[in-house]
Write a structure and sequence with these properties.
Elements: H1 2-19, H2 32-44, H3 48-60, H4 70-73, H5 89-108, H6 120-128, H7 137-166
């Protein structure tokens, strides 16, 4: 089935390119592997218009080199206040931050990395109502409870979404 889809996409691109037909293929329903195969076929066929359409679809999904600023994807909580003290507070805060952002990415159905959604400071104010340096044990308990209630289900759903929609793996 997958091979037939790639062959069909390739044939469409070649026919479009060779025949000079100016119609655009709708790639919105294509999976990430199908888009990759179509991009390769477009390059091989020297089909600039087809490749542009494919790359626009990839960009709209924030795939591959369109994933955005890598620095945003590496954001972590600052080590201030309780988050700087020995123990598990930092990792608890980081897990809640990542989980909260993954929920947003699932709702948006976007492949952009979770931490690009917001900084930890924005998360802290939005979710806890305080700046990171003002987090107390009360806020830490809220983060622990959030992680217990959500971490595994959200991680599983997010991993499934990424594998199905954003990754090269079929």
């Amino acid at each position: 089935m997958f091979a037939k889809m790639i062959t069909g996409l390739t044939a469409s691109l070649v026919l479009c390119s060779a025949g000079g037909v100016a119609w655009a293929v709708d790639y919105s329903a294509a999976s990430a592997p199908e888009l990759s195969a179509a991009a390769i076929a477009a390059v091989d066929a020297e089909d600039a218009d087809g490749l542009l359409a494919i790359m626009q679809e990839m960009q709209s999904r924030s795939m591959y080199f369109f994933e955005g600023d890598e620095a945003l994807c590496r954001r972590e909580p600052p080590k201030v206040g309780l988050l700087a003290k020995p123990g598990f507070n930092f990792s608890t805060a980081r897990t809640a931050y990542q989980t909260f952002n993954k929920v947003q990415r699932l709702e948006e159905q976007t492949c952009t990395c979770p931490q690009a959604a917001r900084s930890f400071e924005e998360f802290s104010v939005e979710f806890l109502g305080v700046m990171p340096e003002d987090i107390t044990e009360t806020e830490m308990q809220k983060l622990r409870e959030y992680n217990i209630a959500n971490e595994y289900d959200v991680s599983d759903a997010y991993r499934s979404f990424r594998n199905k929609t954003c990754r090269d793996a079929p």
